[in-house]
Design brief:
Layout: H1 8-16, E1 19-22, H2 28-51, E2 55-56, E3 59-60, E4 64-68, H3 70-73, H4 75-81, H5 84-94, E5 98-108, E6 116-119, E7 127-128, E8 133-138, E9 149-151, E10 164-166, E11 169-171, E12 182-184, E13 191-195, E14 200-202, E15 211-220, E16 224-225, E17 236-240, E18 243-244
Antiparallel strand pairs: 1-13, 2-3, 4-5, 5-15, 5-17, 6-14, 7-16, 8-13, 8-15, 9-12, 9-14, 10-11, 17-18
The chain binds 2-oxoglutaric acid.
Length: 246
């Protein structure tokens, strides 16, 4: 039986604004357990970044870490990504056949003024079919103060726009205007849902603690690299014919 129903307003928001919020899908203890599993990998990653001189890709030691391939390396995290809640949410927006495309924890430490730039997820690796779905799950409360995500309403509608590569990541707009876009604060166990074409950023973390998110991205089954036409190699089947993959 489905565990999550998408309300008409949430469907409408995805269509017109490009994002919506799903509240309290998971409990705080479930998020604490997931964070414990993730942190074995995140701590190791942080050490590797420090050993490599402080940066690795867009990760920066003691500032922000992007720790990927978690479901691929931990059976409990993989089982989490295949839970009925994800099947229900992703099939509601993507149709009956869905794969897990990418998953990563993004830990944002207290880091002064650095924001994560405005971008579309499609800018990192353009794929077909597009857009896919990004589920930004809060492991602890994400607030404006500690660097929650922000989105530009309606920005998904114009296709992939031009991005420039910056040391902080791909960027399509400057973050100088503090009034641009809307913040999407979410409590632990809730998630911001947006399309891979929705322009989003995250704010600076001006709190004393680490803001912890697990970003899980799902796509219509059979995703291909748009540039090469090749099948994406590491897809994990999650839903077929509208139901979970056993
Ligand atoms: O969680 C964050 O701070 C930003 C992450 C993000 O926007 C992304 O991974 O696309």
């Amino acid at each position: 039986m489905p565990t999550v129903t998408i309300a008409p307003e949430q469907r409408a928001a995805m269509k017109t604004q490009g994002f919506c919020v799903l509240e309290n899908l998971f409990s705080v203890p479930e998020m604490e357990r997931l964070a414990t599993l993730i942190e074995r990998f995140q701590r190791k990653h942080q050490e590797e970044i420090a050993a490599a001189g402080g940066t690795e890709g867009i990760s920066r030691a003691n500032e922000i870490t992007f720790t990927a391939y978690l479901a691929e390396n931990d059976p409990e995290i993989l089982a989490f990504c295949r839970r009925r809640e994800f099947v229900d949410v992703t099939t509601a927006f993507l149709g009956p056949d869905v794969d897990l495309y990418w998953n990563q924890a993004v830990y944002k430490m207290p880091e002064g003024e650095k924001q994560f730039p405005w971008h579309q997820d499609d800018a990192y690796t353009p794929v077909d079919p597009s857009p896919y779905l990004t589920l930004w799950l809060a492991l602890n409360d994400a607030t404006v103060e500690n660097g929650c995500v922000w989105a530009l309403p309606g920005s998904h509608a114009g296709g992939l726009i031009e991005h420039a590569q910056t040391p902080l990541g791909w960027a399509c707009h400057s973050t100088d205007d503090p009034d641009q876009g809307v913040p999407i604060p979410v409590s632990a166990g809730s998630m911001a849902v947006f399309w891979s074409l929705t322009v989003h950023k995250s704010g600076a973390n001006r709190s004393d603690g680490t803001r912890k998110a697990y970003i899980v991205q799902y796509a219509v089954a059979g995703l291909r690299n748009r540039a090469t036409g090749e099948a994406i190699a590491h897809l994990i089947p999650v839903a077929r014919n509208g139901g979970p993959v056993a």
